[in-house]
Amino acid sequence: MDLAYSAEHETFRSEVRGFLDAHRAQFPKRSGDGRPNAETIAWQKLLIEHGYAARTIPRIYGGYGAAPLALLWVAALAVLVVAAARAASRPVTAVS
User: With pLDDT > 70 as the criterion, what percentage of the chain qualifies?
Assistant: First the structure.
């Protein structure tokens, strides 16, 4: 079994890392009350605009409008979570 990423996945990972490098300063700070603040909402909109959130929700409903690509979505989410945690200098913890 070959567990190496394909060239397509490596390209996608590079794209996500480039996005994070370009928008690192916009990552929202925690508000403490668990509610989305203006920074969180702006970040979510940015993720949607670039296809990293709400990928398969039609544009008319506020999503990105992409065809379902579950594997790429999971890969993007994993890269975003790890990179965001590193950007915020918080440790990444696994959920059991």
Answer: 77
